[in-house]
Amino acid sequence: MPEWIEIKDVSKKIDGFQLGPVSLSIEPGTITALVGNNGSGKSTMLKMIMNLANPDSGEIRVLGKPVDGKDESWKRHVTFQPQNAVGWNAYTGEDLKRLIAPLYPKWDEAVFERMISLFDIPLNKRFGKLSPGVQQKLSLSLALPRSTDILILDEPTASLDIPSKNLFMDCLVEWMEQEDRAVILTTHETEDIRKLADYLFLMQGGKPLGHFEKDILAAGYRRFWLHEMPAGPLPGELSRTENQLVSDNPDATERYLSEHGSPVIDTKALELEEIISLLLK
Ligand SMILES: Nc1ncnc2c1ncn2[C@@H]1O[C@H](COP(=O)(O)OP(=O)(O)OP(=O)(O)O)[C@@H](O)[C@H]1O
């Protein structure tokens, strides 16, 4: 399948911070979560995709078009929701919808109305007077109905209460099912990643740590409970306590234990949160 977003060897220096080189491809039909420590460069990556920040080197293409080229037609196919909406404070939700909807030929009024009702958003209040959580709900309700091929969301659930996070995740899953679409989002919420992401792109201090298929990553780490801990290190061993061993190569660990007659009391896959913490530590 052709890539919808192609980031090739992109680097950028901001004061003392070095981002990249980063390469990443996004295919249609996928949700990719950019995950990393604070200040690891996730938002900057999104801004570079939108041509709101310029890389020092490398190339970014969206739907085959270089994002810094003269042809900006790709922008019509992309919705970008930054962490904070700029210039919206004086407008009510109703105003914003009137301004935004006509710009998008595939605007889906039914999705907008459903989200406004689900989130119980007052459309007659100025954006600047809404709480950060309601602002975020309104922004999302103005993003999904645009029905663009690509949706780029910077920490979409950061201010949402727990029921609203779940409602939003349901809306996004439904949105994905309607057509071939692609989502790239940044998040610190493991629940978002667990429920939404097909792929994780991990970043630390500006450097990419890897692009993982979530299910493969989740299956790649196990904890073993043992009667007796063999002398180590064992194949795949990442850490051990008196009777527990964590492995990033469970098959090799299990084989070794079986071949060396070490009975396993129990074994369990690590939670995604623990895996991400191990990778980002
Ligand atoms: N406008 C700016 N002015 C100066 N430095 C900036 C600016 N934007 C980003 N940076 C630098 O780039 C680095 C990466 O910032 P970025 O916001 O991309 O990280 P992030 O991974 O999105 O962080 P967080 O998880 O905290 O949102 C920061 O550490 C900061 O040094």
TrEMBL record:
Every ABC transporter domain range: 5-230
| Gene Ontology MF terms | ATP binding; ATP hydrolysis activity
Q: Keyword set for this entry?
A: ATP-binding, Nucleotide-binding, Transport
Cleaved signal peptide residues: none
User: What InterPro entries does UniProt report for this protein, alphabetically?
Assistant: AAA+_ATPase, ABC_transporter-like_ATP-bd, ABC_Transporter_VariousFunc, P-loop_NTPase
Q: Tell me which Pfam families the record gives.
A: ABC_tran (PF00005)
Report the SMART domains cross-referenced here. AAA (SM00382)
Please report the name of this protein according to its UniProt entry. Answer: ABC transporter ATP-binding protein
Give the species this sequence originates from. Answer: Planococcus salinus
